[in-house]
Structures are given as C-alpha cells and as structure tokens.
C-alpha cells in the first residue's frame, strides 16, 4: 500500500516594515502591508511531515514531538481544511484516478530547530512548513502566493515565509482576503550579501502577546491610523526600491525607522505595550554609534536594528561588516556559550569583544553575562524546501520519530 | 540709601498634556498647547532674590550659591533685558520720580530647595521665580499671563509656573509669540484634593536633553505632526473640561495617554529617544494594575502616571488614595531613607509596603533598594509668592548669603 506523505522545511522571516494591526481578525487581514527578509533555513527552520492515511482517526499534530491539539474552528484547522478543499477541487475533482486524500485524516509532525526559549517567533516558519508539506502531499498546483493566502490564516506573518529573499505581504482591500498575500520583491540571489546578527535578549517577564497587543493598538492608539494611511505606503515603496537598487543606506534607514515606529504605536496604546527593555535599548545605542562612525568614515550606514514583539534585536548588515558587529556585541554582552561561527569569521581562537576605531565606548555600559543569552549569525535565505523521505519526522506507524 | 530688592518663590509644574517641539527655537514658541498641574511650593520651589544697585558692575546670577555666568544673547539675558525694558516703558517713562532701576545692573541669587540630583526639572520654577522677583523689584503692573510671556523665553514650561492650580500654555499662532502664554484653567482651590506622588528613579546614564531632543523629533518623526494637529487640541479641551468637572477618571485617562504619546513620538525620532527605563515601566505596570482593581471595585480610576523627559514617575491621585499609592511603591521599591510623611498618613511607625486586596502582585518584580531613590508626596499648589526681606538670599554686599 502507498504511503502518502511529504516533508517540507520553511524559513523564519524578520520584518523591516512591521505588521501591527488586523482589519479582520478571523481572516487575519492586516491594516497595512509589510515587508520582510527571509532568513536562511540552513540555520533556523521549521520542518513538517504530513501524512494522509485512511486508517487515521482524526487530524493530529505533534509540535516538537508533543501532541498539540487541533482546536475545531481554530487557525490550524482552518489551514488544514482549506488545503483539503483545494486537494478536492484542484486535483480529485479533475482527475478521477487521484487518490481521495482529501477524505483522509492527516498526521502532522512539526519540529523547530531553534529552542522556543530563544524567543524567536516560530509561528511564521511553522505555518509555512505546514502549508508547504500539505501542498506537496496533496500535489496542489498552487503558487507560493496562493499558498501564502492559506498560511496567512494560520499566522499573519507566516505568509511571508512562503518565499525566500525579500518578501512583501500586500495588505489587499477585499473583504474576503483574496488579495492579501505575499509576493517576492527580490529573490535571495538578487542581494545575497544581506546578513543578520540576532541578539537573543534575556527577558524576565512575559510580554503582551502580539495577537492581543495589536488589536489593543488598533482600538486605542491615536497615532496608528496615521501610520497606516500616511507612513507605511511610502515606506513600502521606498524600501522595495532600496532592495531593487541594493541601497543599504536607504534599507537601513527605513528598517530602523519602522522598528521604532512600531514600538512607538505600541507605547501609544492603552495601557501601553513595551517590548524592548533596557538591554534592547543599549543595543540600539551601540548600533547608532556604530553607524555614526561608519557614516563619518565611509559616508554609509553599516547596520540596521529591528525589534519584533519582544526584546530580541535583529541586526541586518552586509556580509563584510558582520564580523565587526559580532565583535561589538561581544564587547558589551559577554557570552556564556561559544559563538557559533558559521561563516568562519574568527578561525580557531574565537571571538574577542572589540569596537571599531573612533567608537565612543561610553554610549552603553558593559553588561553581565547572559543579558544577551545568545548571538545567532545568519543571512538571507531561500523559500520552503521539499525534503526527501529520509527526512521524515513520522515513523511507520504515523507517529513522531524520536529525534536525536 | 534705599535698597531696591525683591524676593519671590515659584513652584514646579508637571504637565498632563506634554510640550514637545518648538516652532520657533529663539522665542520658544511651541508646536502644541500644553497643560500642567502646579505643585505645592511648600515642598518644591525655587526662590530668587533680585537687587538693582547703581554700584553693581554687571548683571550677575548665583544659582544655589554658585556664580552662573549670564551669556550675552542667551535665554537668561533675554528675560532680564525684557523685564528692564518693561520697567522703563511701564514705570519710569510714566513716572519721572520712579528710580531708574532699568539702568542699574542686577544681582540675582536663586536657590532650589530640591537637589539637582533628584532629576526634577528646575528650569521651570527657576525662571518663574526669577521673573517674579524682578517684576516685583521693578514694580511692574503686569499680570501673570504677561509675565509668562517672558518666563517662556527663559524655558518654555516655565511660563506655566506663573500660576497655581491648573494651567494651560496656549501655543498661540503669532510669529512674535505675543499670544503664546499661560492662562489659569482652574485655581488650586477649585480642586485642592489633587495629590502627587513623585518617584525619583535611579538613572545610570544621562538622557538626551529635552531642548535638542524635541527638535530632533520635530525634524524626523513621521507621527509628531499628526499628534500636534489632530490629537492635542481635543485632549486640551477634554482635560480642561475634566478639571472643571473635577472628573478624575477623564483627567487620569488623558494624562496617561498623553504621557505615553509623548514618549511614543520620542521613540519615533531618528535616532530614537528613550526617557523611561525598566523601572519606569515597572511603575506603569503597578499603576495599570492598581487602576484595574479600582475600576473593578469602584468603577473609577485612582491614579495617573506621567513621565517627563526622564525616568521619574509623577503619579497624580486624589488625596484619599495617596496612602495606598505610597504603600504600593514601597512594596516594590524598598527605600533607603525614611519617607517624608508630610500629610501624616502613617503616624510614628512609618510606611509599610502593601498592595490593595485583589492586586496581582506578579505584574512587577520587587526591586533592589535605590532603584527608586526617593518618594516625594506633594499636592497641587499656588502660584509665585512674594516673600519678605527676611527671606532675602543676598547679603548686605549684594552677594549670596551662605545658606544653612
């Protein structure tokens, strides 16, 4: 008997123009367009295996090996049902010989290769991998943009993880959400020098969830509508042009301004929402000073910080500057664990904390070990990948393999 | 021979609708109107003695006993010269017998009764006291609003310290600034139950000065203009009405929203400006939770936080709730020095840290001693006072007395 199964992996993406606010909370339709860089799934990824089998009793998901109940009417169920519907309409109804996979329950095993404790949102890569693996299993003829419509309903920003490179989520205007999907602004290969240094910041307290936080901003901020109507559209156009032109100065300036403005409207919420803490702010001070020196010496910016709904910093930079930034962060934030030197910047002796010449060291205080729990160096990457059977996360019985 | 001398004291004011941005940096004309509560000068004040004497060589100022050079063309010189001009025009030109004080140099001694280290802006009370003492010395017939036009040119928010109670600074529209002055919204006696608990927050690093910070916001924030044009005018009207009606709920809601929005536009600046730190944010979390409990129990808010260009919290509350707030702050922020119990809330045994029933203690972590360096309990107060000769800060020679 055939095994109907597919495995896919999908990347994390980090927005430069931030998504904050829904105009439809059920369909997950945003109040503004957004734009992100897809990060390399060689480093950070979600992997998902989906199997359809007539013997399965009900749709079941295991997340990192643990049963994660699928709530009826919930976002996960919405995605699975929509993909089954497409299987029926686009495949089975057109080809009578196609197995009726849409009528079988599915077993899904999903695994993130980065710890939840890292504070990196796994819902984007997770839903993108889930949609990709089911689309492969069902042999759907859908394009990444079409699949992004489904991933969007799982987790808004997941739609952007259906592409590699530089990706826009066009907000759309239709009530049914059919024009609210992701498009590729430029592939990874257009500007492969874009690197990212992620600083995982220690956070004592749990912040406001982005789902509830963004709706509170929609309801109470006196500034959000201005951002939506008058600021974001121009920034979307400008940063797309900057990416086309590989203009890092413009890319960095817009990315930092939009991170700041996202946190500004979060603060303009009642009660106010704070995602950045004093460590996040110290990293901003370092990047501002690093750019000041760079601008003075070269006339160009060298780094762009951005913060999502948490205290972690993602610092975009071009490949040639990544070493300086890793050294800079180490200088102020001593690390407990050795830096994972994926790009072989440092050779055998490891990283030494260091600032560039002319850097005013007084812009921040050195912190204690663990203020920044980890530093991840990665770069722009490709979109979802289909993996071979040997990568399956399900065993013969259709339950999760035990991972090493 | 006569001694021409006057002494005045003036209060601190803390804005509920924040002043942030100048449309004219020389005349100090703001981009929006603002509104403040004047605090009791029995507790926090600047006192200034001015003396005019033909033997004096040049205008001289001592601030807290230390010679503070008067820069030609600077703000201090502008205020002194404008008051001399009024002396000539309004007094000497009309009454030939009036001594020609406008032709004498002045010696000015000014003293703040709160330490600079407290992080409370002393420029507002300082310029208000200076203008008040010179106006008295020169026997000017000017009203407080007229004097506020002069104080404004010393330090914008100083104009609001020319009145007690609840004070608006009308931004005005004229290019010469002649309609940009303070007016009384309501006197202290209209709503004397307004108390303030000031938390002096320890701050490791020196923040951006408000003078340079606000102009950077004017130049780079994409949100400030919306605030100025579409948010502040309605808030000014609404909070004035709330004060007239003694409606603490509306007063508190607007005060907190405007503090948040001021810090939001500071964050929306390039590079971003942060005045609040993690301790400031913890105090916000406490007040939000305290209000949540109050709303649930009584249907009303009990406290309103507000932050100026620094990490200190000012918590407005009605007299009846001041004790609970002082206890709440002590619970999370242990104090090195004994609380100055001006209103005899606690009797002999001193303050015990305590939360109200139903309060979720997990909203913040208890901090170490000195995270909040001091707690000052005060209330709404009156406007500048003229003091007797026995309060003079100048000795017979016209130099500062040594203060105990």
UniProtKB/TrEMBL annotation, chains A, B:
The organism of origin for this protein: Cylindrobasidium torrendii FP15055 ss-10
Pathway: Isoprenoid biosynthesis; isopentenyl diphosphate biosynthesis via mevalonate pathway; isopentenyl diphosphate from (R)-mevalonate: step 3/3
NCBIfam families: mevDPdecarb
A molecular-function term among this protein's GO annotations: ATP binding
UniProt domain Diphosphomevalonate decarboxylase-like N-terminal: residue ranges: 10-182
One GO cellular component, as annotated: cytosol
Protein name: Diphosphomevalonate decarboxylase
SUPFAM superfamilies membership: GHMP Kinase, C-terminal domain (SSF55060), Ribosomal protein S5 domain 2-like (SSF54211)
Keyword DNA repair: no
Keywords assigned: ATP-binding, Lipid biosynthesis, Lipid metabolism, Lyase, Nucleotide-binding, Steroid biosynthesis, Steroid metabolism, Sterol biosynthesis, Sterol metabolism
Matching InterPro entries: GHMP_kinase_C_sf, Mev_decarb, Mev_diP_decarb, MVD-like_N, Mvd1_C, Ribosomal_Su5_D2-typ_SF, Ribsml_uS5_D2-typ_fold_subgr
């Amino acid at each position: 008997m055939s095994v109907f199964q597919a495995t896919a992996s999908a990347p994390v993406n980090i927005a430069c123009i931030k998504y904050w606010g829904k105009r439809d909370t059920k369909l997950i339709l945003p109040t503004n367009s957004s734009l992100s860089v897809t990060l390399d799934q060689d480093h950070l990824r979600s992997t998902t295996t989906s199997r359809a089998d007539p013997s399965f009793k009900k749709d079941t998901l295991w997340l990192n090996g643990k049963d994660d109940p699928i709530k009826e009417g919930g976002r996960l169920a919405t995605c699975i049902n929509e993909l089954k519907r497409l299987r029926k309409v686009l495949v089975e109804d057109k080809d009578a010989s196609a197995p009726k996979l849409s009528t079988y329950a599915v077993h899904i095993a999903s695994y993130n290769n980065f710890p939840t404790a890292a504070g990196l949102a796994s819902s984007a890569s997770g839903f993108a991998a889930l949609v990709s693996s089911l689309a492969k299993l069902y042999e759907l003829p859908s394009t990444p943009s079409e699949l992004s419509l489904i991933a969007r309903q799982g987790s808004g920003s997941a739609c952007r993880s259906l592409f590699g490179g530089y990706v826009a989520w066009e907000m759309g205007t239709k009530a049914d959400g059919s024009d609210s999907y992701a498009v590729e602004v430029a592939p990874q290969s257009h500007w492969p020098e874009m690197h990212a240094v992620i600083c995982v910041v220690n956070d004592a307290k749990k912040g406001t969830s982005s789902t509830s936080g963004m709706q509170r901003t929609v309801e109470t901020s006196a500034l959000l509508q201005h951002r939506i109507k008058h600021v974001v559209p121009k920034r979307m156009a400008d940063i797309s042009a900057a990416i086309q032109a590989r203009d890092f100065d413009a890319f960095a300036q817009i990315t930092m301004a939009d991170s700041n403005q996202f946190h500004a409207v979060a603060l303009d919420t009642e009660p106010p929402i704070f995602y950045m803490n004093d460590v996040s702010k110290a990293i901003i001070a370092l990047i501002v000073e690093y750019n000041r020196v760079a601008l003075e010496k070269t006339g160009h910016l060298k780094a762009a910080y951005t913060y999502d709904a948490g205290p972690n910093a993602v610092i975009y930079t071009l490949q040639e500057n990544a070493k300086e930034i890793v050294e800079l962060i180490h200088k102020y934030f001593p690390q407990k664990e050795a830096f994972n030197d994926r790009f072989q910047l440092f050779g055998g002796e490891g990283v030494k904390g260091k600032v560039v010449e002319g850097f005013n060291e007084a812009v921040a205080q050195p912190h204690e070990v663990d203020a920044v729990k980890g530093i991840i160096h990665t770069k722009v990457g490709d979109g979802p990948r289909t993996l071979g059977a040997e990568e399956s996360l399900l065993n013969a019985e259709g339950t999760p393999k035990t991972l090493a």
